[in-house]
Amino acid sequence: xxxxxxxxxxxxxxxxxxxxxxxxxxxxxxxxxxxxxxxxxxxxxxxxxxxxxxxxxxxxxxxxxxxxxxxxxxxxxxxxxxxxxxxxxxxxxxxxxxxxxxxxxxxxxxxxxxxxxxxxxxxxxxxxxxxxxxxxxxxxxxxxxxxxxxxxxxxxxxxxxxxxxxxxxxxxxxxxxxxxxxxxxxxxxxxxxxxxxxxxxxxxxxxxxxxxxxxxxxxxxxxxxxxxxxxxxxxxxxxxxxxxxxxxxxxxxxxxxxxxxxxxxxxxxxxxxxxxxxxxxxxxxxxxxxxxxxxxxxxxxxxxxxxxxxxxxxxxxxxxxxxxxxxxxxxxxxxxxxxxxxxxxxxxxxxxxxxxxxxxxxxxx
Length: 365
Fold this sequence. Notes:
It comes from Rhodococcus hoagii (Corynebacterium equii). Its cofactor is thiamine diphosphate. Keywords: Oxidoreductase, Pyruvate, Thiamine pyrophosphate. InterPro entries: Alpha-ketoacid_DH_E1_comp, DH_E1, PdhA/BkdA, THDP-binding. This protein is an alpha/beta fold. Helix content is 47%, strand content 8%. The chain is built from 15 helices and seven strands. A five-stranded parallel sheet has the order 1-2-3-7-6, sandwiched between helices. The longest helix has 26 residues, at 33-58. It is globular.
């Protein structure tokens, strides 16, 4: 893998033509026409999730949202490469990964609405909730992977992060631990070219995947807007982890077409020409063109996909608008896996404090 860093793996060009890469094409040779159509549907639905959530934030229904616009192929391709018992540690932008893992759309916005500390139960989908501390999830993933390995579980653990996170100490420590202990981790970097307002060339003058060599692990750079190529390289890395081959590093070269979050204005630090260049590499358009070339795209299929996207978006919107406000006691839920005397004490003290507020109101009336 390490000798391929200079030439990102690509299986489908932006115009929809297939690329002759027998080594990686073999890894996705089982992707028949219906599976290819399903990947396209995943891409479209993921973008619809993102646009709906962004609209909800603009309407004041969410406090903030981290858009994934433009990164759909990197997320769908990698998520669909995994087995159900593989475990995912996420950052804060992997909404498409969550969708592919089976997270209920009605739960996706609760944390961003501010009415819950998390959205879903990680145990039901083997995927953590969004992690806001940049790079911290790398250590969590490495520890989990090592523990699972010691328990005899033949699984892959995947951790998602952006190019900016590669400058964080937590991630460097995670790479070092994983390499030294042969932890079965796939480090999946979505290089979307911008760490908020800082371009990637300020993060690293060389390909980010090249950093893996310093830790003694194989790495591959892939066209992150090519869902088939991402599927192929992630399958290879995940299989290596499951087979006891240790950690791998994947750099998916993609582009954040929208803002860093909905509180960001990318026009202050990006040019229109750059955005147009990457818009021509749109991951959804690429696979639609491939489907058209191979006679797999028609009006009926298009309508079915759009209907599915609208249904998921409606469920996401309903989940946001109908999410119940939490009660005071929920502040103390899920802090520990089991009952804890300190939490019981703090809960009782907080209830006593709330009682004083009620007593004060009654006295005033």
